[in-house]
Amino acid sequence: MSQPAHSALIDGQWQAGEGAWRAVHNPVTGEVIAQVADASAEQVAAAARAAERAFASWRHSSASERSHWLGRIADGIEAERTRLQALQQRNNGKPTFEAALDVSDAVATFRYYADLCARGEGMTARDVPLPDDSVQAELQPLPVGVVALIVPWNFPMVTTAWKLAPALAAGCTVVLKPSELTPLAEIALQDIITATGLPAGVVNLVCGAGEVGQALLAHPAIAKISFTGSNATGQRILAAAGPRLQRVSLELGGKSSLIVLDDASLAQAIELAVGGAFFNAGQMCSATSRVLVARSLWDRFIDGFVAAAQAQRHGPAAANDTTLGPLISARQRDGVLARIQNGIGRGARLLTGGQALAGEGGFAMAPTVLTDATHSPALWDEEIFGPVACLQPIDSDAEAIQIANRSDYGLVATVVGGERERARRVAAELNVGTVWLNTPQLIFPHTAWGGFKHSGLGRELGPWGLKAFQEIRHLIHAR
Ligand code: NAD
After folding, report:
1. Which end of the chain is more exposed for a tag (fewer CB within 10 A), N or C?
2. Residue identifier of the C-alpha nearest atom 22 of ligand 1
3. What's the distance, Cα to Cα, between the start and end of the chain in Å?
4. Catalytic residue among 98, 251, 383, 460
5. Burial letters 216-231, b for 16+ CB under 10 A, else e
6. Cα–Cα distance between 24 and 27 in angstroms, integer?
7. What is the distance between the alpha carbons of residues 128 and 255, in angstroms, rounded to a whole number?
């Protein structure tokens, strides 16, 4: 068992956490792989103050300097790809191809913002044309200040990169709090960042759970909180930020649909539905756990999709034939299984799965497919966050649109169809932040990420992700 002697990075120095020790598990086997100490309240405050001190000079760094640092971080991650990938697999149980994608995504995100900085796009002052010749206006993008980045366990490092890279690009300094369930890759990432020579205090790290997060956002130095996680926590953060009007960005949950139109390729529809439901063991805010299938394809889709679900292979994360990882914890798995039972009690029909897989001693469960789940709020309306797909036949495009939009959330949707214009017409009616047409769930740093309604506030990635860490000042002066 590895035991990081340090878990708090404050002002460029590693410290031992002064709070309680917390066991970190390998979800494939259930074994404890590390003990990580929480930060104490004093350490959280020290991290915020260190970021505040560093802000005084980092805010004045030039866009090209920031480009240099972001590029170096991307290089550092790339150089440590093997170690980071292994950590993602040990701490998260991800199959090899999924862990490799996570590292690539983090690298791509740092490179994207390095490039944006190199071009100065959205970072440097620019003139604003005015209808009055006697005055001149200049728009000045400024960093918002010291930011708290609070991230979940399902894509550690990726979610962090989506926040950290634009925050640094904007000229903010940072205190990062990873999930208490998956701190290992984030701790390794800080080592990489420190090794680049980035000025001390620009990035600080504290470990721990909700109390550490609360202490962080309560610190007066924190100007903004960027949070990814559950809606319950997001609402708490928004409420806590209210009295001090701290800026808040929230990336929260989803309840998304994959729509199979009647002119879709059946093979492609099944392949995309498998990815949408079972990638990362369904522990994705973007999981398409509602699968709406044109009635003319319904019987054949069910047969093909159930067979594909049954063909998913659990096993050691690093084994070549493993396609489906475990859930992150026994608690998460048992919660998903309870949802399934609850749904069955309300008339849902189980086609496959629905049980834990105890074989390796970890937190795996069988990929699960149900139909007739529309009367089960636990399956049909709420986020499941496990490898579960609920299938429902549809009789028209209009019905599919109506069902997909009938949700408190609005994060993503997938449309699978033959005729491009028709599929685009369906996409145009969906109240979500991202629609994939006949593609897997591709996410590029160039496109915005975020959702409508209860899926969050604001957008990450692209120039929008940068703006989330900026204030705007206008200078208006006489000619
Ligand atoms: P969570 O809300 O329990 O925890 C997320 C983070 O917040 C963790 O670091 C946790 O320690 C911290 N936290 C918990 N309580 C806190 C508090 N009171 N104050 C401050 N910080 C606190 O979420 P989770 O279970 O780790 O993650 C799963 C959730 O994340 C799902 O609902 C999923 O949809 C969502 N998610 C959304 C996106 C997106 O981009 N929209 C991406 C990934 C995950």
Report:
1. C
2. 210
3. 68
4. 251
5. bbbbebbbbbbbbbeb
6. 9
7. 41
Alpha carbon of 473 to ligand 1 centroid (Å): 32
User: Do residues 426 and 401 lie in contact, with contact meaning Cβ atoms separated by under 8 Å?
Assistant: yes
Interior angle at CA 160, CA 113 and CA 149, nearest 5: 105
272 C-beta closer than 6 A to ligand 1: no
Contact criterion met (CB below 8 Å) for 208 and 105: no
Closest CA to 265 of 417, 89, 396: 417
Which residue's CA is the closest to the ligand 1 atom numbered 17?
210
285 is catalytic: yes
Cα gap 36→215, rounded to integer Å? 18
Q: How far apart are CA 116 and CA 156, in angstroms?
A: 23
Q: Are 312 and 324 in contact (CB under 8 A)?
A: yes
Cα-trace Rg, the chain: 23
Q: Judge if the beta carbon of residue 219 lies within 6 A of ligand 1.
A: no
- Please tell me which residue in 117, 172, 285, 390 is annotated as part of the active site: 285
Q: How far apart are CA 312 and CA 132, in angstroms?
A: 66
Reported as a single tens digit per residue, the pLDDT across 23-34 is 999 999 999 999
Nearest to 24 by CA among 13, 33, 16: 33
Res. 358 pLDDT band, cuts 50 70 90: confident
Q: Is 65 a catalytic residue?
A: no
| Ligand 1 atom closest to 152 (CA) | 26
